[in-house]
Amino acid sequence: MLDTQAAPVGTRGARRPVRPTGVERTFPAEDLIVSKTDRRGVITYANDVFLRVSGYELDEVIGQPHNLIRHPDMPRAVFALLWETLAAGREIFAYIDNLASDGGHYWVLAHVTPSYGANGAIVGYHSNRRRPSPSAVARVTPLYRQLLDEERRHPTAKAAVEASSRLLTELIADRADSYEDFIWSIINREES
């Protein structure tokens, strides 16, 4: 099954499929990718590093869903956990493989937080992303591969997410108390 990601081109909303090329992009360790979205995940802000690394122009991302850069080889279970965590008003750290406009991909360690309005309600989300180490990517890749394999065994997206989310819970239980603890174990290993 060929999984493509639709991507906007220009301001007219024309779309073209972006197919992964397998070429990995990278960016300097000191660079920080920043984006903001509304409550639905529609991009309202992207910094110059986001644009440079993703290969998009500002007018191509503003007003588009953040999943514009979702790599088809990222398990849906990770995004389900991300949205569940954010909806509960909590921050999340996650290793994410993103898809650039040219089909290249780039790994990030994402820190996503809810943004609150004056009345205390969630009005959107803020994400800072930095370059992870190759060893961190090597630690999450087998887990993500298992989740993807599980997802591909199911005929619908809903069934795939449910099954891979159950598997994620089981696999994490063997490694840590939670996905967050698993991610922090990788981060702490990198910093020591």
TrEMBL record:
<feature type="domain" description="PAS">
    <location>
        <begin position="38"/>
        <end position="89"/>
    </location>
</feature>
<dbReference type="Pfam" id="PF08447">
    <property type="entry name" value="PAS_3"/>
</dbReference>
<dbReference type="InterPro" id="IPR013655">
    <property type="entry name" value="PAS_fold_3"/>
</dbReference>
<dbReference type="InterPro" id="IPR035965">
    <property type="entry name" value="PAS-like_dom_sf"/>
</dbReference>
<protein>
    <submittedName>
        <fullName>PAS domain S-box-containing protein</fullName>
    </submittedName>
</protein>
<dbReference type="InterPro" id="IPR000014">
    <property type="entry name" value="PAS"/>
</dbReference>
